[in-house]
Task: inverse folding
């Protein structure tokens, strides 16, 4: 094999989807699965080359310097790139950030020159960057792929160059149960995606990133330092994630660093502290500025009062058992579920859904929390070993559609996952539209979870998020969850401003307060700061009211972070609205907020361009920086063989991708039988092979499977419909080919104005296979379409056929 100038070898899963575009004037488009076409968008393993001609990885170090003053953290991140090779390089580095961060500055240093980055609209910033590279200038570009996932491009790094890029962000620290927590994410976990590289949007393409093997250290160093300046004496300061060195420089101040043996960047750095007397820093902060004045109210909640009423509840536990959960995360999940299930009351109802590439439930309707039912559920969870993709959306849709145990029983959905998916906004949208079906609590499991998803699920579902770093924390978090459910702190919360003129208050509506944490309100104020702010609500069924005098607030010109924090909160809310109901006006508003307040958003980016021309043109090589797997996450999260003993047949025709396994194999592992789950002991691979068609027949049938968008009745973008169908076509073809018989389906899909499927009718079926029909209908129900162009309902006719 001849050496090639690449850093990585893609371990590609061929999804077998090809979108054949229609000729002008044709009425139909065929979406034909083929084994050798479109590459699935997926992470892959990095392979180190010994070829001296191959360029070395340019990222040498990252460092985080954190200063916490009162309730506001300011963070400076420094990345150092060095070209030790012979070619001019471009480096691409995917890195995480806090989901609550407001990134407000970036600068690039080359030798003695420092260039301040400017904020520009996303596309314009990309064009500025590419133009600079074409002109032979060194440049850097910072883009937001998710609110907690960023991409840094540094281009035209000359041989021998050392380039420093610094970025700054701020975030608000909100205590819970009198404990403050600051989390600095260090690694982006590998994301599961069922899209192809061709159909994926620009902001999803980062998913195809190289990863190191489990336990392999990152090829760059990491440093972390934190300075704490609290307004009250510090009582306790610890870290559940790392061994730390703490130097107290006063009653209210401390310096924190990582011990040498713990300077690893494969897990979040988590710092927790509490203040003397379990007090929290609450009150009113106000900033005076030339342009706009902002305020922040942080009000300590009342104490928790246990309710005397024992109201029966229904719990739907939605548990991720995909490949990335294999090992440590799943063991933590088992400990959590042992506690959650084991402490249900006899008058409660519950159900358990397991999901990976497919999903299955303990029962089609929730069961009473009897000892026998609970033992069966715990045994089911304990048998799981983890494997497969992470199809969160079908699991959510199925869970929300399950019938209620009883008409008047309050229902809660509890989602347990590491969050390594790319469908965050789709999930938020779906939950937001189905709030009447139950509130949502989320548990993030692991050392580097996707906090954007975990926090966003709970925010959309009017619940609370939990992050469990290790097995020891499972019992405590489960106890907190029970307290939240049974005795909310404050409900029906309203804020009244008397004598103080305010505008643009965030949040517009304050959700019920389950956790013992402060009520937080941002906004702009106008004129002289005076009057009172009144917070009222219900605590344990009784009226609660607290009044704050504006004159007692801290008014200063130094509270500049308030403008960034307010703008970031407004941007998050608008971004949620954009997903719920796409609107150019709201997108423009988010974009303008990013430009006005100098903030990184989905639609604005930072770009820094050197003033000097340093080379003849664009870099000769582009290097994607490989990332370490989060601590406790196995190679199954990216790919690798599944254990036959775990029920994942190595003979499966579906190649592994993000631990992707054959969907039907998983269904067999915990298939419900008459409301009960069958024994999950795996069937031998030989038996499964006997049931499957011959490999040549399977390939032929799959290759001959045609999926046609025959007709659209309504104003739906046909190309978008075809893309949506293409994302499921490989699964559909696989299921049909596995049956080993030719046939044809004609299916009518009715969608509402938002593109949500309302009804599916099979108009024609020549397969005459009830089980196959149910599987195909379920796969079709997972199609996700965009909103109609005229705000009216629409219908789609889909034809699925295969010949021998």
Result:
């Amino acid at each position: 094999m001849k050496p090639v100038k690449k850093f990585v070898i893609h371990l590609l899963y061929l999804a077998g989807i090809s979108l054949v575009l229609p000729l002008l004037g044709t009425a139909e488009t065929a979406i034909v699965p083929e084994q050798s076409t479109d590459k699935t968008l997926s992470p892959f393993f990095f392979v180190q080359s010994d070829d001296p001609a191959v360029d070395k990885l340019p990222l040498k170090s990252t460092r985080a310097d954190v200063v916490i003053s009162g309730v506001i953290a300011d963070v400076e991140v420094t990345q150092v790139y060095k070209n030790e090779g012979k070619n001019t390089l471009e480096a691409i580095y995917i890195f995480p950030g806090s989901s609550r961060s407001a990134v407000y500055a970036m600068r690039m240093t080359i030798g003695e020159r420092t260039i301040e980055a400017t904020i520009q609209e996303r596309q314009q910033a990309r064009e500025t960057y590419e133009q600079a590279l074409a002109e032979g200038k060194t440049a850097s570009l910072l883009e937001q792929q998710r609110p907690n996932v960023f991409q840094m491009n540094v281009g035209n790094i000359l041989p021998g160059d050392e380039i420093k890029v610094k970025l700054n962000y701020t975030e608000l620290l909100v205590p819970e149960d009198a404990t403050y927590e600051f989390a600095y994410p260090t690694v982006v976990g590998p994301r599961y995606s069922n899209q192809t590289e061709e159909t994926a949007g620009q902001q999803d393409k980062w998913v195809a990133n190289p990863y190191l093997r489990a336990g392999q250290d990152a090829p760059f160093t990491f440093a972390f330092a934190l300075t704490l300046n609290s307004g009250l004496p510090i009582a306790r300061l610890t870290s559940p994630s790392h061994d730390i060195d703490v130097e107290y420089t006063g009653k209210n101040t401390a310096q924190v660093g990582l011990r040498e043996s713990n300077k690893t960047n494969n897990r979040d750095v988590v710092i927790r502290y509490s203040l003397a007397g379990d007090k929290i820093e609450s009150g009113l902060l106000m900033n005076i500025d030339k342009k706009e004045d902002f305020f922040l109210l942080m009000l300590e909640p009342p104490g928790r009062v246990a309710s005397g009423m024992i109201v029966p509840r229904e719990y739907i536990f939605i548990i991720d058992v995909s490949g990335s959960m294999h090992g440590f995360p799943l063991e933590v999940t088992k400990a959590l579920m042992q506690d959650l299930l084991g402490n249900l009351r006899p008058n409660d109802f519950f159900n358990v859904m397991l999901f990976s590439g497919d999903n299955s439930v303990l029962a089609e309707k929730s069961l009473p929390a009897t000892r026998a039912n609970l033992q069966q559920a715990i045994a089911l969870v304990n048998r799981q070993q983890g494997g497969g993709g992470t199809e969160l959306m079908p699991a959510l849709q199925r869970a929300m559609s399950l019938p209620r145990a009883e008409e008047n029983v309050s229902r809660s959905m509890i989602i347990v996952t590491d969050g390594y998916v790319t469908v965050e906004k789709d999930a938020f949208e779906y939950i937001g539209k189905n709030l009447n079906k139950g509130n949502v609590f989320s548990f993030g499991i692991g050392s580097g979870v996707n906090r954007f998803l975990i926090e966003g699920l709970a925010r959309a579902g009017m619940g609370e998020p939990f992050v469990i770093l290790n097995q020891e924390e499972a019992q405590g978090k489960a106890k907190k969850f029970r307290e939240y459910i049974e005795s909310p702190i404050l409900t029906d919360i309203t804020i009244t401003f008397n004598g103080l003129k305010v505008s643009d208050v965030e949040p517009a509506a304050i959700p019920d307060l389950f956790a013992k944490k402060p009520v937080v309100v941002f906004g702009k104020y106008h004129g002289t700061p005076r009057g009172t702010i009144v917070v009222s609500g219900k605590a344990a069924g009784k009226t609660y009211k607290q009044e704050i005098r504006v004159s007692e607030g801290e008014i200063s010109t130094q509270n500049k972070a308030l403008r960034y924090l307010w703008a970031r909160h407004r941007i998050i809310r608008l971004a949620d609205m954009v997903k719920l109901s796409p609107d150019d006006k709201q997108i423009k508003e988010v974009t303008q907020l990013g430009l006005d307040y100098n903030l990184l958003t989905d639609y604005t980016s930072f770009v820094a361009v050197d003033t000097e021309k340093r080379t003849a043109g664009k870099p000769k090589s582009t290097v994607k920086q490989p990332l370490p797997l989060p601590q406790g996450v196995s190679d199954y999260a990216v790919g690798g063989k599944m254990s036959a003993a775990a029920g994942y047949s190595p003979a499966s025709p579906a190649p592994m991708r993000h631990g992707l396994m054959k969907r039907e194999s998983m269904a067999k592992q915990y298939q419900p039988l008459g409301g009960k789950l069958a024994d999950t002991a795996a069937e031998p691979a030989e038996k499964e092979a006997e049931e499957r068609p011959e490999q040549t027949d399977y390939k032929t049938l799959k290759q001959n499977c045609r999926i046609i968008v025959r007709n659209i009745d309504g104003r739906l973008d046909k190309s978008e419909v075809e893309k949506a169908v293409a994302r499921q076509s490989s699964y559909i073809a696989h299921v049909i080919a596995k049956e080993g018989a030719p046939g044809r389906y004609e299916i009518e899909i009715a969608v509402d104005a938002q593109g949500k499927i309302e009804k599916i009718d099979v108009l024609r079926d020549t397969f005459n296979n009830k089980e196959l029909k149910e599987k195909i209908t379920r796969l079709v129900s997972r199609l996700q379409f965009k909103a109609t162009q005229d705000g009216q309902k629409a219908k789609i006719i889909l034809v699925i056929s295969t010949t021998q």
Summary: DSSP finds 14 helices and 42 strands in the chain.
